[in-house]
Amino acid sequence: MRNYRNGLAALGAALVLTMALSGTALPQAAPAAGQAPGAQQPSYTIPEYNAFQAAQAEKDPQTQIKDLDDFVSKFPNSTLLQYVYELYYQAYFKTKNNAQALAYADKLIALGDKAELPRRLAAVQARVQLFGSVFKPADANAHDELTQERDAALLGLKLLPDLKKSNPNITDDQIKTLSMNFEVAAGAADLQLKDNAAAVEAFKAVLAATPTDAATSYRLGLAYLGMTPPQTLDGFWALARAVDLKMQGADKVKDYLKQRILAYEQPGCDSQVDAQLNELLQLAANSPDRPSTYTIPSHDDLSKISQASTIITVIGDLGMGGDKAKMTWLAICGAEFPEVVGKIIDEQKSANYIDFLVFTSASADEMQAATMANMSVRVYTAAPAAGSTTAQVTPQPDVERLSKDDEIRFSGSLVSYDPSPFLLHWDSVKVDPTIIPEKGGAKKPAAKKPAAK
Predict the structure, then answer these.
(1) What is the Cα 151 distance to its own chain's centre?
(2) Residues 164 and 75 occupy one common structural domain
(3) For residues 57 and 94, is the Cβ–Cβ distance under 8 A?
(4) For residue 261, how many other CB atoms are within 10 A of its CB?
(5) Global pTM?
(6) Which H or E run contains 418?
(7) How far is residue 116's CA from residue 76's CA, in Å, rounded to a whole number?
(8) Mean pLDDT of the chain
């Protein structure tokens, strides 16, 4: 009921606006017999006029519809049809029969130049307001209905300049209101017709005039993402802007935006996207347009970084901080690396694992001289706790025989890092058993192989 009342208010406001702008009088009575010969003769008869006046004066919409039906049956070609159709769609709207209201608005629009411009525009405005309550996407002729809606909205935009020329009392704000209504209607239809380029242009026109329109910003984002190829970054920005403007269902839009970023980047660690999303929301709150300098790396961008990375380059890139560190971590967070070599600086034992504090370098001499770790390597000596993300790791109790200054060679997954003091954290680690000292303390020969990719 609330939606109907809102629609009634919107339609009523639209009709009041267009008719107030028209300055067009209703038809006058035909001259009586015996009037001056020079009097202008109307194009309708006295019976037509009287029948129309009776229908117009009727207050009950159901009775008024019957009167209008009677009029059309008697005078199917009357020049008063533009006024009759106007009464029809208003009466049907009052009876909540929006489908019939829209049908009679279309009849008036179809009269073309035979209808007065303001009334034709009022009918266009009525039909674009009514369309959403009538349209069903599952209808077999949905495509044709959307096309008709778009064409009607574009017709309204085309006629507006003529309305402005015909009545100098019309204000720019009144024209702007009508223009925005038609642009929104055209864009919404284009979006469903998958003509996303046209939808983008319509929604951008709306936002140029009303930059805080959250719903239009959301639709603009969908249109950008639906283009071929997708205008991904602009789409993300428009969706973020809609969230910032607190559109209805903003939390769901935020979740949707996060999922689209995840699909675009496909980072190793989903948690990294949270920071990107928060940054995007902060930036979009201050600007309706995406700065050319703002970017989010694609999956291809991250894959190139990942494929070119070794543990040594990763440590160097992360240690630099800034955008380089962000990009590198997005690319390699969660990645698995085989045969990483380092020197144990210290160890921290827990109930079911040991954290080896390890230093690695491309230089064997640097590893030999190192006294400070740049990696934390967690190796489970007993089964991980139930529900742990490393529950499938096979415990290696023999690693307890490793000690300070020993070489360690392992494979594992990167899970996090501390920027200062720098420390790269590993989990799901598997130590190469060939470097673990034998029972009794005998150490196996140390390999001089540097850290691998």
Answers:
(1) 25
(2) yes
(3) no
(4) 23
(5) 0.81
(6) strand 407-419
(7) 19
(8) 89
According to DSSP, residue 400 is labeled G
- Each residue of 294-307: pLDDT tens digit? 999 999 999 999 99
Q: Is residue 422 part of a domain?
A: yes
CB-neighbour burial class of residue 275 (10 A; exposed 0-12, middle 13-18, buried 19+): exposed
Helix (H, G, I), strand (E, B) or coil at 416: strand
Whether 305 maps to a domain, the answer reads: no
Reduced to 3 states (helix: H, G, I; strand: E, B; else coil), residue 426 is strand
Question: What is the rounded distance in angstroms from the CA atom of residue 186 to the CA atom of residue 148?
Answer: 10
Q: Say whether 139 sits in a helix, a strand or coil.
A: coil
Shared-domain flag, residues 21 and 61: yes
Is residue 118 domain-shared with residue 255, that is, in the same domain? no
Residue 66 lies in a domain: yes
**Positions of E strands within 26-74:** none
User: Which residue, chain included where needed, has tokens 């291809």?
Assistant: 300
Specify whether 265 is located in the same domain as 152: no
121 and 187 together in one domain: yes
Rounded Cα distance, 452 and 435, in Å:
16
The verdict on 110 and 186 lying in the same domain is: yes
SS3 302: helix
Residues 68, 144, single domain; the answer is yes
CA atoms within 13 A on the CB side of 366: 15
Give me the amino acid identity at 19.
Answer: M
CA–CA separation, 151 and 172 (whole Å):
24
d(CA 275, CA 255): 14
Give the total number of structural domains in the chain. Answer: 3
User: Which range among 234-243, 285-294, 345-354, 384-393 has the greatest average pLDDT?
Assistant: 234-243
Q: Are residues 251 and 350 in the same domain?
A: no
Q: Are 119 and 24 in contact (CB under 8 A)?
A: yes
d(CA 421, CA 373) in angstroms, rounded, equals 10
CATH code (residue 395): 2.40.50
Q: Which domain holds residue 375?
A: 318-323+329-435
For residues 146 and 135, the answer to whether their CB atoms sit within 8 Å is: yes
Angle at 386 between CA 383 and CA 387, to 5 degrees: 125
Q: What percent of the chain has pLDDT over 90?
A: 79
Question: Is 68 inside a domain boundary?
Answer: yes
What is the radius of gyration, based on Cα positions, of the chain?
36
